[in-house]
Amino acid sequence: xxxxxxxxxxxxxxxxxxxxxxxxxxxxxxxxxxxxxxxxxxxxxxxxxxxxxxxxxxxxxxxxxxxxxxxxxxxxxxxxxxxxxxxxxxxxxxxxxxxxxxxxxxxxxxxxxxxxxxxxxxxxxxxxxxxxxxxxxxxxxxxxxxxxxxxxxxxxxxxxxxxxxxxxxxxxxxxxxxxxxxxxxxxxxxxxxxxxxxxxxxxxxxxxxxxxxxxxxxxxxxxxxxxxxxxxxxxxxxxxxxxxxxxxxxxxxxxxxxxxxxxxxxxxxxxxxxxxxxxxxxxxxxxxxxxxxxxxxxxxxxxxxxxxxxxxxxxxxxxxxxxxxxxxxxxxxxxxxxxxxxxxxxxxxxxxxxxxxxxxxxxxxxxxxxxxxxxxxxxxxxxxxxxxxxxxxxxxxxxxxxxxxxxxxxxxxxxxxxxxxxxxxxxxxxxxxxxxxxxxxxxxxxxxxxxxxxxxxxxxxxxxxxxxxxxxxxxxxxxxxxxxxxxxxxxxxxx
Length: 495
Hints:
The protein is elongated and about 95 Å long. By secondary structure, it is of the alpha/beta class. 42% of the residues lie in helices and 15% in strands. A hairpin with a 4-residue loop joins strand 13 and strand 14. The protein has 17 helices and 20 strands. The strands form 5 sheets. A 9-stranded parallel sheet has the order 10-9-8-20-17-16-15-12-11. The chain has a 5-stranded parallel sheet with strand order 3-4-2-5-6, with helices on both faces.
């Protein structure tokens, strides 16, 4: 078993000299995360065993702990931890900073501690060690009443993104779970953009991603990158992807209904489907970026009107892609004759609606769409799925006909050491490891298998992931192991 502490957190180690606290801390945490009284004695005194430097060392320890907690940094206090007042003070300091506090108690057998102490370069006096061992028993009796969020025995551990520490995955296997890849940034340095995108798309196809998505924006959006970064137009990029792949499906996540006339959008999607051999997915949303619209002079009507456009588009597209050339009358636009040649290869191009609005978005999904795309933790997704099912019941729709997908940024690595290296390399100079790991849900393959099993249990059978290091060799390939471990045959018809 592995302890997964939510980063940032405070971890207080409790145990006698020779109990193994320092070895444990060094194995599972970054060197900078461990605040050691012995190391501080060596810095302000003649060595780790210089007891005359203890007062100064502990004063500095308190200042370091306070500053790290204030800045939201994971902190491991490596002392004996045998003073109850110290433990309570540290836990209280963490909680006042909004950070959880944990204790790890090393109830190491006395004989083991004594043997290790005898072989130490500078052993503590035997009488001191025996007093420490007696105080460990007292600490064990007291610590459960102290303000720690949990008390653990030593075992393999890691400080990880909070979403990876939540409730354990369901006991049943996550069968039939599938994955899509969202390519949201193209800041890939110098090189041929076509070759770079082709490489990403082909690697995603080889890795087992079912579909590939791009954002439908005309400039990079806030929270993802800088406005002047490269961001290819969505459907031009998808057409290119279709030409360099053979199996992977593709779509825009999601096309804003204000970006193009709905009939023009429908014609573009139909053409993509025809030329890709039936691999198009039509993602739709009401749009949200007013600043983008204003910059380009694109009309950005009120939200109620945008919902009306979305509903009209959902009603119109099956007619455009279907037989004949029917007339269409909607609330926001009309067409005298819906003609679309070539016809799509698929009998019905799947339509996915993005958004989690409970009153109208999910009701439109229940009424017209083949899939929805949700945001949030597994618990949030589960609540949204319940709302969707109620709308389906009201409208007489089988909820099993609608695929529930969700979107998540994921930084993946094969093991903890690789993950730490990735976080430190990608996080930027003024970004803490904790905040970056939280933002990108940084975890190992095992972490992510557990997380996506929870999403599957919540009702989302398809996960669309954005990989911050997507252009780097090995990133998609690393995530392929997650895909493989959750790849179980399913009879579900996918969009």
